[in-house]
Design goal:
Layout (H helix, E strand, L loop, with lengths): L29 H10 L27 H8 L9 H14 L3 E5 L2 H12 L5 E4 L4 H9 L3 E4 L20 H11 L7 E4 L12 H13 L4 E4 L3 H11 L8 H11 L2 E5 L9 E5 L2 H8 L1 H5 L10 H14 L2 H4 L1 H15 L12 E5 H4 L9 H13 L4 E3 L19 E5 L7 H16 L7 E5 L5 H4 L1 E4 L3 H13 L4
Parallel strand pairs: 2-3, 4-5, 5-6
Antiparallel strand pairs: 1-7, 6-7, 8-10, 9-10, 11-12
This protein binds ligand F0G.
The site of ligand F0G has 15 residues, from helix 4.
């Protein structure tokens, strides 16, 4: 992909694959989009996919598979115990991460559950570059606290720092001192840091983190769910990685880690998850919980077909042409929007394009969930669903007080190899229209609010009739058009 130079005009993303299976999309009229979002309680998670034109909710479990992956699914060995499929997956895991032990789990949060059951107790702390929703919820459920130690620049919307996902080493040392190393359950580093805009950390920063952990005898846990994007940026943006192969970079990260876990809904372009380690002691402790919560040790809740797909997907993760498609499309989308003055996180990261709702809707107060409101408005304007990544995705404290997020983002995920460049251009076009009409958008309030992970199934309503005004303006500007 990135290797092709263009003779005329400006360069643009060029796919190094062709599309051989298609799925028809449906774009319903704006009035129907208004009805659909009302029925969904202004929560994009609750929309029906048949009402969605481009699904930019997430890249989880919806990345396009390769022909090799689909072919591998056909020769899966279906058995509860000791299947050949598991042996193949285990072998490819051990080869990929250069580790001795592998435990299967049904998805990423299942690994987080096992880790927090084993390591986290009341009064314990988990320092992290930045939390992820499920990881944090599972740590706090076990009585632990999360300390977010991302470098200051990581929370700035506009920046040209290449590794905004780095952890602040000085603060890490301070937190370890404050709680005492015995009370640090583990240090969690998240590759391609999700909630701050898919921002990577450098190999240099990870090496420093590992040194601190080893000096204090604290396990270093790598959340490798978004490792593919992180790897791409290590290779492109970090001088020390320039001449390393992708596999050499992975092995270096693995050598510096004590435990690695991942959602295979992201890493490996499949659906599932797993935990890798070189420590026999950690392996034995975690192994006890797999048959209890996940399934027998040779499937851990995954179907054999998915396990075959992941094994091939991991192999493809070491191919730069395969992992560059996401970052290069995101780079295009972010740069086009930035040129047009639309507030987006820079530099472009992995996972998707992240719109800064706090600035896009600077007239909507944080207690009316600007990122959620922007998500609703954008669906009405385009039929595209994104995901709120802001205060709505947090949860209230024990006294019911709102916890305001550092950033209010509308995430427009780019599942790998799913959308074409013209669809991305459509997404940009509708966002431009919405930006010009942003004053019509107002906030949201809950009418059904779950206590834990409320963003998944909570329901909200607009604070006024702003959505009908937005629909009327759409009709006025677009006439009969969808
Ligand atoms: N860690 C990271 C960095 C993630 O992005 C996710 C999931 C998980 C762990 C949990 O994995 O979904 O397989 O249980 N992220 C999805 C998303 C939900 O849309 O960003 P899971």
């Amino acid at each position: 992909m990135a290797k092709v130079k263009f003779y005329t005009g400006e360069s643009f993303p060029l796919e190094m694959h062709k599309v051989r299976i298609i799925q028809k999309l449906n774009l319903i009229p704006v009035e129907e989009r208004g009805k659909a979002i009302t029925e969904a309680g202004n929560n994009t998670f609750l929309l029906q996919n048949r009402d969605v034109f481009m699904d930019m909710l997430t890249d989880s479990g919806v990345n396009a598979m390769s022909d090799r992956q689909v072919a591998a699914m056909m020769y899966a060995d279906d058995s509860y115990a000791g299947s050949e499929t598991f042996t193949r997956l285990e072998k490819s895991m051990k080869n990929f991460f250069g580790c001795k032990y592998f435990l299967p789990a049904h998805q990423g949060r299942a690994c987080e559950h096992i880790l927090s059951q084993i390591f986290v107790k009341k009064g314990y702390v988990v320092p992290t570059n930045y939390h992820f929703t499920t990881a944090k919820a599972l740590i706090t459920v076990n009585g632990g606290v999360v300390e977010e130690l991302i470098i200051k620049e990581g929370l700035k919307i506009k920046s040209d720092l290449p590794f905004k996902g780095n952890i602040d080493i000085e603060q890490l040392n301070e937190v370890i001192k404050k709680y005492g190393p015995d009370k640090v359950a583990y240090v969690r580093m998240e590759a391609g840091t999700n909630l701050v805009g898919g921002q990577p950390f450098s190999l240099e920063n990870y090496t420093e983190t590992s040194k601190v952990c080893r000096a204090n005898n604290i396990p270093l846990v790598l959340d490798a769910s978004l490792l593919a994007d992180n790897l791409y940026f290590n290779k492109k943006r970090e001088a020390a990685c320039k001449d390393m192969t992708l596999h050499e970079i992975v092995l270096k990260f693995a050598e510096l880690s004590d435990i690695i876990y991942f959602s295979a809904r992201k890493l490996g372009f499949g659906r599932g998850g797993g935990i890798c380690t070189n420590s026999h002691e950690h392996f034995l402790k975690m192994r006890e919980l797999i048959p209890l919560y996940e399934g027998f040790l040779t499937y851990g809740g995954m179907s054999v077909r998915e396990m075959e797909a992941i094994a091939v997907g991991l192999d493809e993760t070491l191919d730069e042409d395969m992992i560059s498609q996401g970052p290069i499309f995101i780079d295009y989308m972010v740069k086009e929007l930035d040129k047009l003055g639309i507030p987006v996180i820079t530099p472009p990261g992995g996972l998707g394009c992240h719109v800064d709702a706090m600035s896009f809707l600077d007239h909507v107060p944080q207690n009316q969930y600007p990122a959620g409101a922007l998500g609703s408005a954008y669906y009405i304007a385009s039929g595209i669903r994104g995901m709120e990544r802001g205060t709505l995705s947090e949860q209230r404290d024990e006294d019911g007080k709102e916890y305001y997020s550092n950033m209010e983002l509308l995430r427009l995920a780019l599942p790998r190899r799913v959308f074409t460049l013209s669809q991305v251009n459509y997404a940009i076009d509708r966002l431009v229209w919405l930006y010009e009409n942003r004053r019509l958008v107002e906030g949201l309030r809950f009418y059904e609010e779950p206590k834990i992970l409320r963003f998944f199934y909570g329901r909200l309503e607009p604070v006024s009739d702003w959505q009908s005004k937005l629909i009327a303006k759409f009709r006025q500007d677009f006439g009969e058009s969808l």
